[in-house]
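Hello,

Our lab assistant flagged a job as stuck in the queue for most of the afternoon. It eventually completed. Since we weren't sure the result was trustworthy after the delay, we are filing this so someone can double-check. Below is the sequence as submitted and the structure that was eventually returned. Let us know if re-running is recommended.
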Amino acid sequence: MSSNKGLYRFNQMMFPRHLLRLIGSSSAFFLLLSGASLHAATLPPGFTEGLVATGLTNATAMSFSPDGRLFVCQQAGALRVISNGTLLPTPFTTVATSATGERGLLGVTFDPNFASNRFVYVYYTAATPATHNRVSRFTASIADPNVAEPGSEVAILDLDDLSGATNHNGGAIHFGPDGKLYVAVGENANPANAQTVGNRLGKLLRVNADGTIPADNPLTFPGIAGSPTGANRAIWAVGLRNPYTFAFQPGTGRMFINDVGASTWEEINDGIVASNYGWSICEGACTPPNGNFRDPLFQYDHVIGATGGCAIVGGAFYNPPVNQFPASYVGKYFFGDLCSGWIRVMDPSNNTASDFASAIATPVDVQIGPEGSLYYLIRGGTGQVWKVSSTTPATPTPTPTSTPTPTKTPTPSATSTTTPATPTPPPTATPTVTPTPTPVVTPTPSATPAPAAQALNLSTRLRVQTGDNVGIAGFIITGTAPKHLLLRALGPTLFVEFDSDRLADPVLELHRPSAATITNDNWRDDPVQEAAILATGLQPNNNLESAIDVTLNPGTYTAVIRGRNNTGGRGVVEIYDLSQAVLAKLANISTRAFVSTGEDIVIAGFILGGQTGNDRIVVRGIGPSLTALGVTNALANPTLELRDSNGALLIANNDWQDNLGQAAELTAAGLAPTNTLESGIAATLPPGQYTVLLAGLNNGTGVGLVEVYDRGRP
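-- returned structure --
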C-alpha cells in the first residue's frame, strides 16, 4: 500500500494517513463513518434536503437512467436501483468482483439509445483470469427493467492487468455527446504509467459503444514519444493519477475531469482531446510552466477544512431539462471532497469556487436529477442518497443545450471546411415563409388540466455557409407582454468530434421590424451586454461566440448566424425564453439552411418545461414551396424525424399526407404544408428535451426549412 498522503481508499482505511492521525483512534474513525452521516448537511438559505434511500453498503458511484431511476454502485458488486424514491430489494445485477482497497464496482452509465436497446454499462474489477478492470454491458429485462436479463453480460473492454497495488483504479464512465463511451482509468499506484502510451493506465479512454476503437482517436500526446498501437489506441488523454469522476456538460459537451491528488493538490481539469495533464511530473499547475502539460482549471490544497480536503469526488454541471434551482446556478459545476465533507460550486466562466453544502460525512458522488434537484451519495455508515432542493425556485430556466447529435449519423472526419471568400453582406431575412400560427378553439374541459409546458429553448444546429446559405432563423413571439430573450450563436465549443469543422468565429444578427438590426461578433465586446449575458448564467464558453440579451414585443423576428470574414462550418443558433411567467411565449422558430447528408442534415432542438402539463407541438419540413419565394436549389423532398432526449425515434414523416390523422391535425391547426412532398408532424409531448432531424429523401440535398411551433395545451 502506497505511503503517499491523500490516497483515495474505499475500504475501512480509505482516509489518508494524515487524517487518520488527526482522528486519533479507530473508534472515533468508525463514529465518523457511521453516526455523522445521519446528520443533515449545512445548506445555503433557500435550500432544503431529504433522505432518499439508505442501506447502500460501501457505495461508490451513482447515475440516473434516461427514464429517471437512480442506479447506485456498491463496491462489493451489487448495482442497486432506486425507483420512485424507493430502494428496490433486488439488485439490477451483481458482478463478481475483487473489492479490496479501491477495487470493486466503481461506475455505471446508460447507452444513448437505452429506450430501445436497454443497455447498461458498468466498470468493475474482474478477478479472472488475472485481476484487471473491465467495462461490461448488461441488458435490462423486458419483463422487469429493474433487473438485467440473465446471462446478458458482454465484456466490451478488458483493461491492463493490475499490480499488487489495490489503489488508483479510476472508474467513472460516461457517454459523450458524440455517442462514444469515455472511461477514466487510474495509474494503479505507478506514476510512470501516466506518462507512457504503452498501456491504458493513468488515462482517459474513448471507445465505441461496442468496445471497438474509433479511428479518429489521437495518435500523439505532448511530452510523450511514440504513438499508441493496438488496444492502446483507445487512449484519448494522458497524464492522470486517479480520475475517479468526470462529467460532460449537457448541451455544450464540455468535459471536466476530477483528478485525485497525492500530497498537495486536488484538480479539476478541462477535458480536451490529446491533452497531457502532467502527472507525475506536475501535481496541480506546473511550476515552472511546462508547455507539454495542460494545467488544471481549478485546484485546492490538502488542508482539511472549508476549502481544502484530500480527495475530490462527484462532479455535475447544473444544466437540467428544467431548472429547479435559482437561475444563478445554471451552468455551474458541483463537486465534493470525501474527507472535508463539503460540496462546492465552480463557475466555469472565471474558474472560481464558492461554498454550497458542508457537514456531510464521506460524500462520494454528486449528480443532478432530471427534475433539477441535486443528489449526493454518502459512502459511510449505512450508505445513503440525499436530495437537495430549492425552497423558492426561480422560474425554470432552460438548459443551455445545442441539439443532441443523432445516433444514426456517422462521426465526421476532422477536416476543415472554412473557405475564406470575398465578404458578402448577409441577407436581411424575414421569416415570410413561416405563417403565424392560427389559434385553435377547443372546448373547455370539465376538469382543469395541469398547465401546459411551453418552449423554454429553441435551437438549430446547421452548416453555416456563405451568401444566401448562411443560417437564417425566424421566430415568433405571441401574447401581450414584452419577452426577455437570450440569443446565442455557437461554434468553437461544439462537440469535439467536429474539430476544425466547427464555425470558428460566429457572428449573430437580430433583425427587428421597424428597428435597427442588432449585431454581435464576440459576446464580450460590449460591457453592458456582457454584464446582462453573465447575469443569465447562459454565457457562451468561448469568447469568440456570440450572444444578444434583448427584450422584444410580440411579433416576428429573424436571427442570422454567419461566419466572420465569410467563413463556414457547423454552428448552432439558440433562443432562450428568460421570462416564461409573462403573458407572452416563444411560439415558433423556423430555420432555413442548406441540408446536406450525414452530420450536415439540419437538426432542431427544443425544450419544453415551466409547467407539468403536456404541450402540443407541430413540426414542419419545407422544401419545394421555397422555390416560389425565390430560393434556388430548394430541397426537393424533405423528411422529418422527431426524437426524444435519448435519441429514440418518436415519429417520422416523409410526405405530410401519408398519415391521415396527422394530416387532419396539421390542417386543423392551419399549418398544412402547401406541397404534398413536404413533411409535417403533430405531437402531444410531456416536458423534456426533443430533437427534430430535417433531411432529404434518399440523401437528397438542398435548401430547406425546419419549423417548430408551440401550440399550447392539447
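-- support follow-up --
The delay was a queue issue, not a problem with the job. The result is valid. The longest helix spans residues 527-536. Helices lie at 17-23, 26-34, 114-117, 527-536, 660-668.
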